[in-house]
Amino acid sequence: MTPRESTKEVKTSGFEPTNLCEACKNLILDDRKIVENAGARLKNIQPLNEVFGFNKLNFRGVPGANVIVDTLDFHQYDELPHLPRLAASAEAGCHFCAFLRTAISNQYPMSDSDCNDARMEIAFHYIWQRSKQAQMLGSSLGIWLRALVVDLTISLHSGVLGFEKIIFLTEAPPDPENPRLVIVKGHSPRNNFNYRKVKYAALSYCWGPPEDAESMLKTTKESLQSRLSGIVKGEMPLVFRDAISVCEKLAIPYLWIDALCIVQDDEKEWQQEASQMGKVYENAFVTIVPSASDSCKEGFVQRSRKTLEVPFRSTIRQEIHGEYYLRQVTSLDLDLHLAQYKYYLEDNFTRWDSRGWTFQEKALSRRILKFGPSMVSYDCPKWRRSEMEDKRRESSGGWSKPPVLSLTAPESYTAWNDITGNFAKRHFRYRKDIFPAISDMAQRFAKANKDKYVAGLWRGDLFRGLL
After folding, report:
1. 133 Cβ contact partners less than 8 Å away, ≥ 6 residues apart
2. Shared-domain flag, residues 150 and 227
3. Per-residue model confidence as pLDDT tens digits over 445-465
4. Does residue 446 share a domain with residue 388?
5. Which residues of the chain are under the pLDDT cut of 50?
6. In the chain, how many domains are there?
7. Is residue 64 included in any domain, yes or no?
8. Where is the Heterokaryon incompatibility domain (predicted)?
9. 167-181 confidence digits (pLDDT tens)
10. Residue 146 shares a structural domain with residue 237
């Protein structure tokens, strides 16, 4: 986990003027320079990939679309994992330094042991795209700002460790009106809940940074009896309250939440319930996934996307002025087909998708109702549908029942190794949770293959597993 206690929250709603340090003032656009130099800066699809390397950026959509790569006069260095220079600039009042530091910490969570003495070089590029009409006419006009790409080069004294990217899409000002109003009614938990016989939803969410997780409403030995009598709505964190409102709209009478349904300070019960958690998600009518929420304190019914305002005044026509907004996305593929592009982002690149426990929760759920930063989507093993699409689509191959449950050795061992390889990339607050978080899938594999589970490996494949 990234140490987030030193990350200062900055209001970046887009409605307040943005303060920029001297270095970040290079973000402010000079449209005259763009127009005058467009011919020299135009690069087609293939050279664009070469510019950024590793084929990590790709614009698709209009055949032959031309792209302008505008490298900004911004090069800074900082130290990982705490990024003290960005922190100092943010503390001094630069909104973009605060915005960028939070983005780096969220996208690439690291600890002191991961990157001791590592240095990060930061560079900026604006990405512009020409319209098809502008291409046909050979004009440098008809171009629009597509994204701000932040290139990160991570190195040690011994040399470069790797290259990463942070991508901010540009967009119009966010709508200040929020028409959603949700009234949450009281729910009383009942004893002897049998998930096999009752229609219920399960919540799969992020607890958040340590301070949020510590203060979150939980069930303990001391509070168990009072929880059985009822829970005051106002005591619940926002993510719980929003999940309850979703259940009410769907006429689902029960909601399973790990922090409330497992006695958190009873180690014996916790171990027992953790081993059964896969069954909880498999038998749920639907799993509610608030992927827009990075913490239990963040709701997901009322959308509020974090954006940063950047001022603009044309140097060609002074009467043209205003602002544009930057919103972080995390994608290696910028797709001009907006619905599928956003679905791809929100399905693969959120804090929820990097959390350890959600790996098994996602794999074993029958249905997933996901509330992302910009849209609501529905998934089952066969179909997917989002509010941005007119029709349903076949689910991607990545979301299906684990193949190890239907294969036989040796193919099943290879499939299991693929799954555990992806699982190993996930983040855990407590290392002791690693094996419980995949234990239900391991039990199913053992039963299907009549093999013995040995701390992430299998007796029948132990020799290869230890290599």
Report:
1. 139, 142
2. no
3. 777 667 776 666 666 666 566
4. no
5. 1-17, 39-65, 133-141, 172-193, 330-339, 341, 397-400, 404
6. 3
7. yes
8. 200-361
9. 676 654 443 332 222
10. no
